Amino acid sequence: MTLDPRVKPDTIATHAGRHPAAHGGSVSPPVDRAATRIFTDLAEIEAAHAEAGVTGRLSAFLGSRGADQVAEAIAALEGPGAVATLTSSGMSALAITFLAFLGQGDHLLLPDTVFGPTRDMARDLLGRMGISFDLYHPLASEAEFRACLRPNTRMVLTESPGSNTFEVQDVPMIARVAHEAGALVAIDNSWATPLLFAPLAHGVDLSICAATKYLAGHSDLILGTIAGRRELMTQVMTTQRQMGDTPGADDAWLLARGLRTLPLRLRQHDASGRRIATALQARPEVRQVLHPALPDAAGHALWARDFTGATGLFGVVLDPLERPALEAFLGALRLFTLGYSWGGFESLILPVAADTGRQHLPMPDGTLLRLHVGLEDPDDLLADLDAAFAALPKA
With a threshold of 0.85, does the pTM exceed it? Predict the structure, then answer.
């Protein structure tokens, strides 16, 4: 479906990437499970190969086309002129992005608060290929960030807000300075999604999301997305093809279904998350709530300038808890359950271990918990947390 460029994100999420006339008029497209495609003549198969050479996509002659339709919707959400691709996971989206543009002797910059497995990938996988990396302070001034760039810096990754401690970066400044030095800028935008922060409109070259999380929203699939300008995405998709990274048709269909409710879900995550974050600030056991929308959060002014909302993922720092007290607190919870991959409909909680890989920004002093506020009634979630705090004196 061709959309008027003036329509708003809710409309884009509802309609983009849908082609009912191609599927007998069905509102929701069927699952397109395919490994190979049959061609009527040599000219047709030559045209398919020529298309793949331009776009980098395999689906002109092989594999499911369902992922292409979802990628079309993702591109529409990312902004005018964007091209997108689906990958088999958020981590594969990062790996493909790095390997598409970095080679032996190149240098990569990562924020100090980067997702731990991303830092591990840079150290191990990229390191074996002769690609070096350094960590920069996520709240660095322009002069401080400029000093981190090397003559061989080819890419800067941003992650805003940062993992576990949720500092918001000055992404437009980073993009401008990096571009002046000849480096590309990528972002892990899984927290905000393109609905709440539009990376490409803020100078970023490549926008990456773990679609497993808010984009899908139902805790039932693992996928990633990459979006950017066509000339960059052709190289990205060629690398993806050469790596053999192919998302499954069923997961692509599930992601398409999840996208249709993304704006509604994010509004609820935001409203409930802010309510619970504010309530936690008032508790005597809480030292700090790490939520970008709170005025005392690191980078709050940047969040207010660049973002259109928040999600349900944030941190809370408690007075230090010994293991028995932490076990009592977590054991009293019924709605907040222990789990890693946030962004679904359910509320999660996770104790955050000290990140020994950081070099510039120390972890908060106290017991850090990461909360994901789901779609349950916030009154019930607050009662659940009250019960957990009530269990602390018994520990």
Answer: yes
